[in-house]
Amino acid sequence: MTETPPAGYPIRAVAKLTGISIDALRVWERRYKSVVPSRTARGRLYSAAQVQRLVLLRDATLAGHSIGQVSKLEDEQLRTLLATPPATAAPEVTDEHTVIRPVLTALENYDYATANNELGVLASLLPIPELIYRVVHPLLDLVGKRWYGGSLTIAQEHMISALLRNLLGGLVRLYHPREPRIRLLFATPAGELHEFGILCGAMLAVAAGVEAVYLGPNLPTHEIVAITNRLKPDGLVLGVVAPEYIPDLGGSLQFIADQIPMTTALWLGGHAVRAALNGDAPPRTLILESFEAMSPHLTRLLEEVR
User: Is 0.70 topped by the overall pTM?
Assistant: First the structure.
């Protein structure tokens, strides 16, 4: 009598059903025990209940919760969490945010041209560090909280990303030194889609007189290594905001550190990366937990080449 194969969904089907990448599914299973699929000769098979749980976990992480925290919750607890309005659902624009109010208003109206013009005016009036701390960082904080609270859409969040990339491009053209003494590359590893950190970091580098090469988010490890070896920059800056989405973060960073030139410094930006690595960062890695922490190291690099 032929044995009936167990019912279930293979990992590729689960990735399509949930929108979670195959790499992330494997990390969630291995590191966080989010679900335990059955194993067959054909590979992993996920039950319908496990697929539903993965959808709950996906929605919870999209709402800003850490996979390390929510993976410990039962399904009913996840549903309760998702049904609870966040405390920061509708943050108000205070007096200290007056300078960015026109940008926010244009963003709410999907008015790209006006928002871009307002940012351009602010960039022409403020020194870059002040632009970062008074405009860009508060703007990103408010946009993130409003998206989390449901008062801004994903499209509006994508719009602000495009606006800031455009702003960075203008600053690079305006402040690009004729004979740069220092060059830094900015990227995020595969799985990390948040680019605000490296955008701000690149702007601060430009303000300091450093050549910033912006490679963008979600770059495969082998491409990061290949570009770094080709350009041989003074430093490689990797943004890590959501380490739970990066498959084998420690292993990937060690591989990068081993493969890039010894003369290239490796900087990691993100407040959660130190805890995620749990002491396993490559020895030559510098962890920057805030934008302010970057400035003295930029100054040090510039002084070393004088």
Answer: no
Give the span between the Cα atoms of 62 and 166, in whole angstroms.
25
183 in Cβ contact with 211 (< 8 Å): yes
Question: How far is it, in rounded angstroms, from Cα 153 to Cα 147?
Answer: 6
In Å, what is the CA distance from 13 to each residue of 18, 25, 75?
9, 12, 21
Reading the block at residue 294, the tokens are 């970057």
Which residues, in sequence order, are CB contacts of 93 under 8 Å at separation 6+?
100, 101, 104, 142
Whether residue 259 contacts residue 225, with contact meaning beta carbons closer than 8 Å, is answered with: yes
Other C-beta atoms closer than 10 Å to the C-beta of 186 total: 28
Asked if pLDDT for residue 248 goes beyond 50, the answer is: yes
Return the domain boundaries, the chain. Answer: 9-83, 95-173, 179-304
- Region 48-54: mean pLDDT is 90
Compute the CA torsion angle 221, 66, 154, 189 (nearest 10 deg): -10
Q: Are 168 and 202 in contact (CB under 8 A)?
A: yes
**9-83 belongs to CATH 3.40.1080.10:** no
Phi and psi torsions of 89, nearest 5°: -65, -35
Mean pLDDT of the chain: 82
Q: Residue range 242-263: average pLDDT?
A: 87
Half-sphere exposure at residue 170, Cβ-oriented, CA atoms within 13 angstroms: 15
The pLDDT assigned to 3 comes to 44
**What residues have CB less than 8 Å from 131, skipping those under 6 apart?**
122, 123, 203
pLDDT of residue 85: 59
**CATH number at 95-173:** 1.10.1240.10
Query: For 103-120, how does the pLDDT look when each residue is reduced to its tens digit (9 = 90+)?
Result: 888 888 899 999 998 888
